[in-house]
Design goal:
Helix content: 25-40%
Shape: elongated
Number of helices: 17
Structural class: alpha+beta
CATH architecture of the largest domain: 2-Layer Sandwich
Distance between the termini: 44 Å
Oligomer: single chain
Length: 436
RNA sequence: GUGACUGUAGCUCAGCUGGUUAGAGCGCUGGACUGUGACUCCGGAGGCCGCGGGUUCAAAUCCCGUCAGUCACCCCA
């Protein structure tokens, strides 16, 4: 025991849990493709400079959460802490924006050096999308609606979409100033953290959890009061379009953003089921990012969704998908039968989509049947001395507990065909479980 | 990075104020049932009591450190 363990905040995923993740990843990918998004994969690590410039020097991610190392060439590299900057880098590197608007989705790990907690890990996984080239509110709505489809599709209770606008280069500085003016006279009443925030980023005081800040935050001016005409119009259209397609939301002026690149629309899907990390999906518009990384001025909007948080919500909501009941377990009894079963197993696996397993350790029938049952196999093929002599196999329905004898001695092809026909003829597990 | 709680068999957990061979349930495995998976009964394997140090005649138990988990803060997906 206590040999080498997985590093803090990381986890292994193995059956049956890995099947849940596969299913989830397949599902979100399918939804993204239905919206016309194509998958992008980027390296696990990038030049540190990319994140410093893309995410923002003064953000927590860059200041204290990056896994940074120096490679053998003396270059500073960083494990991807978020997806947006790498995606933009790839787009610029391959000049994809000159092909017009781009719709991309991703699924994969991110790394942040943080103390682990419910729904927070050092290696986490995110699904997300990025939509480049559309400045209008339709793109915001498309992105939000995609996230909404994913979450609503799971019918999760208690998920609420919070929506806000944090303005642009014109109105955000104005808002900062307004907040500063509001809090500065009462500086002494703020929590220690917020006194620091006041100088660096007064917006952050708004989402503080400390009670002494709350009272002052209640009376603070709202972003929405100081949006410039363009931003206000954009926000109004986003809301109108969300209404038009029936996506429910709540205006929440307290949503701010930890990353520097956001402009205008920001949103979060929040669940009461996640403990302190209540956000399962967060995103927004980032019209300045592409240009700040050296590309042509290009509007963009997207979101990131936490896979672990989504899995946690599914678990707590009791929405675990039932394991699929399928496959054939070959049960060979004795050395001769075991050897004789190999060609049949191989033939069944080739060109078939039915999982075929076999126990080569020579456990007794009862145990092998039990294991096959627990592994959710649908049927079993039993070959013992009698069957070997007679050139047959016993084909057993593991759900109905009934069995037939199949001849397999004429030719391998015929045997395979006969087994496939038998398997295909088994009643669907759903129908069976209702009958039983 | 800060704080609190926790670490005993594959899993879930008992082990009172330190005392001799560390337990249970589930799982695994053998048998009752010479080749059929529920249930029942009887047996078996499986533990550096997270790791390191200290106190003591004696430590799973007390103390310190460390690693890990959980929860919260900071912050965020």
């Amino acid at each position: 025991m206590s040999k080498i363990a997985a590093p803090r905040g990381t986890a292994d995923t193995y059956p049956p849990e890995s099947a849940r993740r596969q299913a989830l990843e397949a599902r979100v990918g399918a939804i993204a493709r239905r919206f016309g998004y194509g998958e992008i994969r980027t390296p696990l690590f990038e030049s540190t400079e990319l994140f410093v410039r893309g995410v923002g020097e003064a953000t927590d991610i860059v200041e204290k959460e990056m896994y940074t190392f120096v490679d053998k060439g003396g270059r500073s590299m960083t494990l991807r802490p978020e997806w947006t900057a790498p995606v933009v880098r790839a787009l610029l590197e391959h000049n994809l924006l000159s092909n017009g608007p781009q719709r991309l989705y991703y699924v994969g790990p991110i790394f942040r050096y943080e103390r682990p907690q419910a729904g927070r890990y050092r290696q986490a996984h995110q699904f997300g999308i990025e939509c480049f080239g559309f400045a209008g509110p339709e793109a915001d709505v498309e992105v939000i609606s995609l996230a909404d489809d994913v979450l609503r599709g799971y019918d999760l209770p208690g998920v609420v979409l919070h929506l806000n606008s944090i303005g642009d280069d014109v109105c955000r500085p104005r808002y900062r100033q307004a907040l500063y003016d509001h809090f500065a006279p009462h500086r002494a009443l703020l929590s220690a953290d917020s006194q620091r925030r006041l100088e660096r980023n007064p917006l952050r005081i708004l989402d503080s959890k400390s009670p002494e800040d709350r009272a002052l935050a209640e009376t603070a001016p709202t972003v929405l009061d100081v949006l410039c005409t363009d931003c206000a119009a954009h926000f109004a259209q986003v809301r109108a379009l969300l209404d038009a397609i029936g996506v429910a939301y709540e205006i929440d002026p307290r949503i701010v953003r930890g990353l520097d690149y956001y402009t205008r629309t920001v949103f979060e899907f929040v669940s009461s089921d996640l403990g302190a990390q209540s956000t399962v999906c967060a995103g927004g518009r980032y019209d300045g990012l592409v240009a700040s990384l050296g590309g042509p001025p290009t509007p963009g909007v997207g979101f990131g969704m936490g896979i672990e948080r989504l899995l946690m919500m599914l678990e707590r909501a009791g929405l675990e998908p039932l394991p699929e009941r399928h496959g054939i377990a070959v049960i060979a009894l004795g050395d001769a039968a075991r050897a004789a079963s190999v060609p049949l197993i191989a033939a069944l696996r080739r060109g078939g989509d039915v999982p075929v397993t076999s126990d080569y350790a020579g456990a007794k029938v009862g145990n092998q049947l039990k294991r096959a049952d627990r592994a959710n196999a649908r049927g079993a093929l039993i070959v013992g001395d009698d069957e070997l002599r007679e050139g047959t196999v016993v084909a057993r329905d593991l759900v109905l507990r009934s069995q037939v004898t199949l001849a397999v001695s004429d030719s391998l092809e015929a045997a395979v065909a006969r087994v496939r026909a038998w398997y295909a003829g088994l009643p669907a597990p759903d129908a069976v479980s209702e009958a039983v």
